[in-house]
Amino acid sequence: MPRFAPDIESVPRPVRSQELLDAVNHRVVIADGAMGTMLQGRDLQLETDFQNLEGCTEILNDTRPDVIADIHDAYFATGIDNRIEELALKGAKMARERSEAAEEIDGRMRWVLGSIGPGTKLPSLGHTSYDWLKQTFALQAEGLIDGGADAFLIETSQDLLQTKAAVNGCKQAIVSKGVRLRDRCHCRTSPQATGPAARRWPRAEPPTVHRCRTPAGRPGTVPPRSVSRPPPVLAP
Fold first, then answer.
1. For the chain, which residues score pLDDT lower than 50?
2. pLDDT tens readout for residues 112-146
3. 31 burial type by CB count under 10 A (0-12 exposed, 13-18 middle, 19+ buried)
4. N or C: which end of the chain has fewer CB within 10 A?
5. Which value, to the nearest 10 degrees, does the dihedral of the CA atoms of residues 30, 133, 197, 188 take?
């Protein structure tokens, strides 16, 4: 039989496969499903469920289709692809609760900065589109507003188009929620630079500010910054 390269380009894609390809080219698609981990949490028996085929989880498609279907349903019910706003809200809410707890101790006001970015998808390099990033950041900003953030902190961004998407996403959330928060941008010019830099707002007594990074919501004290400049005006 002669050897030749298969011509797959002439083979049409199914509609659903094409829709998946279109989706990953325009937005972030979450691919989740640790099937092995979920199966280990079930009370499955080697002799009956696995038919003595140790480690052969594929046999469960035949012997325990109810378990496999239930795991699929659990992942879809979680809806991780649409939890941006929910996770941002939880992160901001936790930071707000701890800030208020600290205020009760000494009476000093604390502020919560809702941390946005940077993410791993850079629109300038074609990883994703500007419009999709803007809508994603808007959802995150809405969650931060609902969670009680006092300001937005767009930080550690190396892609100015990504920064623009975050700034305008925040503006969209402000209009949507009817709550105006201050936004501050923190951009890096070195790809090796990591971690937050010192930030200060001019006040007689330096305030204590906490960051809430979603989804984990890690509050931490941010040192003050000596000069405050208004962010650039970016067209949507």
1. 189-236
2. 888 887 777 889 998 888 998 899 899 999 999 99
3. exposed
4. N
5. 110
What is the per-residue pLDDT for 50? 93
Residue 110 CB coordination number (10 Å): 20
- Cα separation, 67 vs 64, in Å, equals 6
pLDDT for 141 equals 92
Alpha-carbon span 152 to 218, nearest angstrom: 15
DSSP-assigned beta bridge partners for residue 157: 187
CB 196 within 8 A of CB 186: yes
Q: How deeply is 192 buried, as exposed, middle or buried, from its count of CB atoms within 10 A (0-12, 13-18, 19+)?
A: exposed
The two structure tokens encoding residue 156: 């550690």
pLDDT at 48: 95
For 88-99, the pLDDT digits (tens) are: 898 989 988 998
pTM here is 0.53
Q: Both tokens of residue 24?
A: 């990953």
Token pair 């925040």 is at which residue? 170
Sequence-separated (6 or more) residues with CB below 8 Å from residue 108: 102, 208
What is the Cα–Cα distance from 64 to 189, expressed in whole angstroms? 54
Whose tokens are 């003595």? That residue is 52
